[in-house]
Amino acid sequence: MSELDREWAGQSNLRPVGIVGAGPAGLTLANLLRQGGIPCVVLERGTREYIETRPRAGVIEHRAVRMLDEHGLADRLLREADRHGACEFRVNGQAHEVDYAALYDGQTHYVYPQQEVVKDLLGAFLDSGGDVRFSVTDVELHDIETSSPYLTWTSASGERERLDCSFIAGADGFHGVTRRSIPAGAVQEFSHQHGIEWLSILAEAPPSTHKVIYALHPDGFAGHMLRSSTVSRYYLQVPVDDTVDNWPDERVWAELHKRLALRDSDWKLTEGRITEKRILDMRSYVVEPMNHGNLYLLGDAAHIITPVGAKGMNLALHDAEVLAAALMEYTRTGDDAGLRSYSEVCLRRVWRAQEFSQWMVFMIHRSPEPFLSRLGQARLEHLIASGSSAGYFAQNYVGP
Ligand code: PHB
Which UniProt keywords apply (predicted)? Predict the structure, then answer.
């Protein structure tokens, strides 16, 4: 143990980091801090059952898995997740495979539903004696611009509680309270509506493919994504302002069969019981900087991205890794360089991902403007035909 470590380990009066939100970002941060000996308390508005079963994203990048594994947090993931290094684009009824792992250092995606990530991270944190308060309401942030910020909330049993913190980490999603606690004018917000909507469908159906399928059809995009051997996720591009009520199950399947169809092939889509239908509005949002005073934002609290390219959870995990390292460095040595550069380091990756997601959005959708649709199709044809374009895709899709 170094002298600094000894000195730091002796600080029994270290105030905890208050983490708001027990999603992938908040729980990764919590585990990394706990492993580094930094106390933290996690506040979560849902119940344990709710967060462990809520279906969301399902794809983790090589880099994020490596980071989790370095901290002993990927054992089950590495045992159970399928690895994917190729995807398929369907255009005019023809399939074109892009072997992105071969184009990018053998790096693959891991298919592992977000709720399983949450289950593993929460289990690891609680097993190590970590403190999570579930079902909290009315969380408020106080004195975030001072060195003594604190949180108050109403506990599950109805009592008002308070936590004096060293720092506050806001990992409570796009609609959470933490970002809203920053005074107006202190940060800059960037948002973009892509003018596209997806109907997102989850079904108890075995996958009809071993690779993610992106299909470009004259009636709009259709996607077949993977979750497990018994559950699959599909997406359909639908008109802006469409509603779930317009999409009875029979219409969903008919449209998926039509848009995913292959010419001269006996490929078939297997149907199953639909368990979730939601409209996803394709929106991007970034707040700059990602911190204010002693409040640091992570994941969707700081940025949202379209689901295209499956970057959201990966960005959240990266934020947690960077913030944990910065907090550890500061606590051990008093050096706040990592905290000062936190936002800049994270935003570099966030904007790279936003640019790539936008590039893909444009490529795989039908625009109401026919000229733009043809440009998107030309981009896809170039990707299929050109090694350099496929290389760009691979690097950004599974990396960087
Ligand atoms: C998903 O698994 O939901 C998914 C995968 C790839 C995408 C978008 C979504 O590009």
Answer: FAD, Flavoprotein, Monooxygenase, Oxidoreductase
Q: Which of 114, 117, 109, 112 is nearest to 398 (CA)?
A: 109
What are the structural domains, with CATH classification, of the chain?
3-82+108-190+283-357 (3.50.50.60), 194-282+369-398 (3.30.9.10)
- Residue 320 near residue 32 (C-beta atoms within 8 A): yes
CA of 225 to the centre of ligand 1 (A): 6
Pocket test for ligand 1, best of 59, 209, 305 (most atoms within 8 A of CB): 59
d(CA 70, CA 67): 5
- Number of alpha carbons in the 13 Å side-chain half-sphere of residue 284: 22
- Which of these is catalytic: 84, 109, 217, 365? 84
Burial (Cβ within 10 Å: 0-12, 13-18, ≥19) of residue 150:
middle
**Distance from the alpha carbon of residue 308 to the mean position of ligand 1, in angstroms:** 6
pLDDT tens, position by position, 270-305:
999 999 999 998 999 999 999 999 999 999 999 999
